[in-house]
Amino acid sequence: MKRHNVPQTPILRTHLLHVYARAQVKAVVRLARSNIAPPEAVNPIIQERTEFDDEGKVIDLDRPGRQDVYSDDNMGYDEDDWEGEEDLDWDESGEVGSVERVRGLTPTERDELERYLRPHRTKAQEEADEADALLAMDPDDVMRDMDPLKYNPVDLDNFTSFQEDNIATAQRIYDDALEANGPSTELLNAALSVLTNALRIQRALDFVATEFPKHDLAPDALTYRSLMRMFLRAKRIKRAEALIGEAKAAGVAPDADFYGYLVDYYARQNRLRSALSTLEEMDRLGLNLHPKLAYNLRKLTQKYRVYTELLDEDPNAIHAMSHHGLMTMRKERARQIAANRAAGRKFFIPRRSDV
């Protein structure tokens, strides 16, 4: 971007930090176009060119000395068509228009020729400057700029080193953004996501504890959402559950994704009661669970036949179940929801003491 003089706006720097934050997740980097090996070369299908004569004998069309056959249809097919093109005269110094071409011309004709050749000289100079710049650059950088989607895989076995390089680059972008545009909550959250996606737990906590007070800013819902996702990916469930109280103590109202990550983690761990309890807390706060985060919980409730009005019917059930199974599930779901409403509760999971 520096080579093309792209203006470094605050939004652009924030988006760059988000790009490096996405690159901290191995599953995302593995699916990048530059990390997918090209397909193996396909063996060409070779078909012999054969022809039969009147006697039924095979005629080899690739025999030595065979002459090509021309017709009126392909006549002149390979001739060059230079209509509308100008054959410019280039001298040895690379300049368009030699001295011999302008001899015998009047001053008016020379001026007209100069006006005609000026754009070509400018274009030639630009191409020469670009070629000199490419020669001064590193060959790997040149190939990367020419073909950014070229197969250039990241060493996933040493992914920690790749993450540290991204953190160092993001730190430089963050420092430049602070110097040029000043601090903002969006900028600090973008820089924090680079650390949280890389699961640098202590460094992320230190960043929140130092950078936000340093710039007289307060963490918001996006800050706590990044921390929640980091703790759950690192399987620090106790620390993630304690983060709910910390957010409320700081006066921050967590958003739906903040609780949604926790619900999805409980569902993946087959903790149905904890997932539904968290979902009930979301219902009291007026938050809706994202369908992507409700996928595992839907499968878990279907497995244990525990239905609740907090979770809508699976939209794929009509395609994944038979008509009899769908009708049976809907009757059982309606029965459990009616029983829960009569008892003044949102869901019911029997405990061992109740059995």
Automatic annotation (TrEMBL):
Highest taxon of the lineage: Eukaryota
PPR repeat segments: 220-254, 255-289
Pfam families associated with the record: PPR (PF01535)
UniProt-listed InterPro entries: PPR_rpt, TPR-like_helical_dom_sf
Keywords: Repeat
Name this protein carries in UniProt: Pentacotripeptide-repeat region of PRORP domain-containing protein
Organism listed in the record: Saprolegnia parasitica (strain CBS 223.65)
